[in-house]
Amino acid sequence: MQKFDKQRILSTFSCSSEIDIHIKDQVGSTDDWGKAFALQHVIDKTNLFVAANQTSGHGRLGRAFVPASVLGIYMSILLPIKNRFLPGLVTTSVAVVTVNVLKEFFPRYSFGVKWINDILIENRKCGGILTELIPTKVSKHKAIDIGIGLNVGYARFDSDLEKKAGSIPVANTFNRDVLVAKIAQQVSKIGKNNTYSKYLPEYRQVCRTLKKRIEVQSGNKKYVGVALDVGEDGSLIVQLDNSRIKRIDSQEVTKVLCPNDEYEG
User: Fold this and answer.
1) Same domain, 197 and 215
2) What is the pLDDT of residues 192-243, one digit of tens each?
3) How confident is the model at residue 156 (pLDDT cuts 50, 70, 90)?
4) Are residue 182 and residue 229 in the same domain, yes or no?
5) Is position 196 within any domain?
6) Radius of gyration, alpha carbons of the chain
7) What would the pLDDT profile of 59-75 be if each residue is shown by its tens digit?
8) pLDDT (0 to 100) of residue 263
9) Which residue has the higher pLDDT, 48 or 160?
10) Which of 104, 85, 94 is nearest to 129 (CA)?
11) Position 265 pLDDT exceeds 60
12) Does residue 263 sit within a domain?
């Protein structure tokens, strides 16, 4: 198991006091770890939780994450809430900086996003982002919990995942410390400066759902049409087959399918 180096991660930050870093060899879920920490502490700066392995990772609606690999990225970031913001733009902004860091580290590969929180490599899901508003120790205050999971160095997937899941191919010398540090650094800047909306134009550029025919499952309802745009609040704007325009909030979505796409997730 390749362990993380706290000092190497910390050295990426210009000021060590701007973040607290928590590392474990193995956890059930870094998200659950971060939430439990928030209930016992005042969250007044960025807190990064990272594990060399996790056994119970999950995404939206509690879906299980792809089984862990020895080089996978399992991290959660707690951000204090200091100003008003649109919750729907947290995921979009984090997706953009994550994709940008991945492009920097792995320039040979094509990375993108499936609305709203799937990270794609060569049209296969290699990761996901889960953002939640969570309670903290301080009464009436909340924090943002941002979980990021990336498949790295995973060679094979079960037959039911082979058309959906992908992995970032790397050598055993791959340095997870620097990758995790750069993602955390960029996410921390977004929270500190409250610049969630700044990344929306770039999100539209990397979002591979746009201009495609999609099927959206929302509870017991199903919407079919073409994804036109991402709204200023992060919602997906769809032109339905009956020509009606439907704005879909990520909180109400069970599943988004692109039936004519190579990626069947």
Assistant:
1) no
2) 999 999 999 999 999 999 999 999 988 888 999 999 999 999 999 999 999 9
3) low
4) no
5) yes
6) 18
7) 554 555 555 555 689 99
8) 57
9) 48
10) 94
11) no
12) no
Could you give the percent of the chain with pLDDT greater than 70?
86
Q: Which two tokens stand for residue 234?
A: 């992060």
Task: Looking at the structure, tell me whether residues 227 and 114 fall in a common domain.
Answer: no
Place of tokens 């794609």: 120
On whether both 189 and 214 belong to a single domain, the answer is no
pLDDT by residue (tens digit) across 77-91?
999 998 888 888 999
Which residues constitute the domain of residue 249? 209-257
Q: What is the 3-state secondary structure (H, E, C) of 158-206?
A: CCCCCCCECCECCCCCCCHHHHHHHHHHHHHHHHHHCCHHHHHHHHHHH
Average pLDDT estimate for 141-169? 77
Chain position carrying tokens 């290699």: 126
List the structure tokens of 214.
């999609």
Count of residues making up the chain:
265
Instruction: Using alpha carbons, select from 217, 154, 8, 190 the residue that is nearest to residue 82.
Output: 190
What is the rounded distance in angstroms from the CA atom of residue 108 to the CA atom of residue 118?
Answer: 20
> What is the pLDDT at residue 141?
81
Residue 30 token pair: 């870094």
CATH of the domain at 216: 2.30.30.100
Q: Which residues contact 235 (CB under 8 A, 6 or more apart)?
A: 88, 247, 248, 249, 250
